[in-house]
User: Fold this.
Amino acid sequence: MVEAAQKQRIPAVEVVDLKKHFPVKKGLLRRTVGHVHAVDGVSFAIYEGETLGLVGESGCGKSTVGRLLLRLIEPSAGSIMVDGADVSRMSKAEMRPYRRQMQIIFQDPFSSLNPRMSAGDIVGEPLMVHGISRGKERAERVAALFERVGLRPAQMRNFPHEFSGGQRQRICIARALALGPKVIVGDEPVSALDVSIQAQVINLLMDLQRGSNLSYLFISHNLAVVEHISHRVAVMYLGRIVEVAEKKTIFTSPQHPYTEALLSAVPVPDPAIKREKRLVEGDVPSPVNRPSGCHFHTRCPYAIDRCKVEEPTLKPAAKSPETLVACHLR
Ligand code: SF4
Assistant:
């Protein structure tokens, strides 16, 4: 069923030209003197049963995209389509049924759990807020969620500080699953965990997806983890998507010079294989004063004069048409 959905590519959520510009205020009168272009015209779809990996250096806007998707922050422009409806401008009340369909797991499982609530109450809270079940029925649902994420129902009485980091992230996953969402945004969900625990949590997320239509937007700077969990990967640079492709295509044949550089920095676990290093120089420019034309031109080893004045759009790559790339030369 999932394979059929992926073949037919039914979008669980579709984002069109999404923008988030934060005002920069200065002076006594707090006048707006500029804007941080955190997300600047991003379009993508996440299909049913699919994991879309979203990668890029810190500050590129990937976490902002995740928060915009759930409307934890309000978009400046663009649309977010869920079940054929644009949820980007809906009121809180209109948004309520759609809220159930999209959940988020944050990076730090400790700070995202209320230390005064038992683990069972934390996982059951979304059910209570949405009036889905009560009393014994709710307790049974929560117990089932605990088992689903590899925790014992007896642990429902324990408090967050009584769990390990990996177990706390399992609680967060159980809470995210409570309302039966279509899409879960994982914002660096394993970055704060020990490496040995990261694999367990990643495998749990993959197990939960198997045989269901659950979709993930998996935001991470760790390309090895993204390669393991994703079906497709989107690469962001300074608020824009610069390349999107199937995981295998992007990891074996990256088209954008920035993707090339990101991938060349990933260690290969086989000493016989040497990957050519294509390191980009310099820091990511300020999202307030972005370079003209292609925002990557100040760091790109292939930049030509055209790159300084003309902004490239996402289009099929000449050598790999299934890849969408924003580069004048590819
Ligand atoms: Fe480099 Fe120009 Fe391509 Fe931008 S458009 S990535 S500067 S070659």
Remarks:
- The chain is about 30% helix and 25% strand.
